[in-house]
Fold this protein.
Amino acid sequence: METFQFIRATDIQTAIRAGSKVNEGEPVPQARFLAGGTTLIDLMKLDVDQPQRVIDINRLPLDKIEKMADGGLSIGALVRNSDLAHDQTVKDNYTVLSQALLSGASAQLRNMATTAGNLLQRTRCVYFRDTASPCNKRDPGSGCSAIGGFNRNLAVLGTSEHCIATNPSDMNVALTALEAMIHTQNSSGPREIPISDFHLLPGDTPHRETVLQPGELITHVTLPPPIPGSKSLYLKLRDRASYEFALASAAVILARDGDKLKQVRIALGGIGTKPWRCPKAESVLTGQSISPQLFHAAAEAALKGAKPQSENGFKIELAKRCLVHTLHLLTA
Amino acid sequence: MSDNAKQAANTSDLSRRSFLTRSGVIGVAATLESCQTLRQAPPREQAAETPAGVPTVPVTLHINGIAHKLDIDTRTTLLDCLRETVGLTGTKKGCDHGQCGACTVHVNGRRVNSCLTLAAAVDGDEITTIEGLGQPDNLHPMQAAFLRCDGYQCGYCTSGQIMSAVALQNEPCGPTDAEVKELMSGNICRCGAYANITAAIQEVRKKA
């Protein structure tokens, strides 16, 4: 691991100043905010990430889960994944989020990992994690080793000729279906970013993964009020029964009116370069009567345009079945 | 094995670690007779010398109820700090990347992977390691259960397994073996002692 300066942030403004590119006219070395550290420290040990400054934000007062006046929920950036998963309001009103969190990582890692950190979780592509291999995400312009390489666990949606890395987070998939809003602060003030606009497709700049600017700090995430009468479910398919990343996963929220689907929100995980919302599948389902044929049509719509790589073509069928099964479970 | 080493091995109050350390030293002394002085291990409470220009940070770690004031290289993980600086070697380094759970300790009563925790980030926090759980003559019930149920073979993952198992008692967990296994999935045992580990945990939970 390369050496770095360690700064303990005592308030939000100090953290933002320490992380900004320019501080009182002086350029600031490449800085990273440290929350749970489960991704950052791992990647620093591998020399994949080499910040010159690490700003510990763990003591900032951003660890509350609060009900909002409009019936929604506010989740602090530093709320640990285990605390969020076991929060009674989350379990009751946002079941899909609790399930997604508990399907990810291990109990120890969930005790460390935070809401904001999980939003910024980096890909598990083996070439990104190996500094001996070309990787456009880690070393722009060096090439993509995964295309034609070991890509069994990589993306089939949202890929480019420069990068096919999967967003590995389960939480992000649930937050995408829940239409979460991400709240940040930087030196010019606060801003709100819908989660669907937060992560970037790789295109020809796969090293840019989110719209965050240097020094911009996620302060909290808000969820809109739950859809009245809705049920939700997260289904994750993987190589092991536990402690493994998704090959395909589905987060579905739906509200019924008898046999008809009144409202449906779908996001898929494990198959996209970002958490993958499926508006076309949602419109196939909305207003229609529940039937196996309808579910299959929705799955076809969700995976339309999916591009298989040399080893991961199976994921297209797997993701379709994952979505169909989730819809069956929610309407049984 | 040299006569000295055999003698050392026969000493009943000798731990496995101190035996290995001493027999190693004897081995070095025997092969490098010209060597005049053997280097002393750095005294505890003082980080191994940090090269000039490497940033350090002052921390106070409360480990098993004792405050340790240290000045450490900012890169030091809690795992390395416990083992190399404080000398508590019960916590094990397996993968060093948060994948195996051998390094599991408690921070403020919650289990975490100490290999992915910067020591500087747990300044002032209460840290419990396997050494703080029980002693050979006064075992924690979970340690005793692992012994009774034979919840190990080589023992390398065991301290992490026990730290996880103790923390699990205070977490939401259903009654079945399957639920225990799910919450213990972050602790890998390559000997495959899982059945007995689960049995040990369930024994303690049923008595609680």
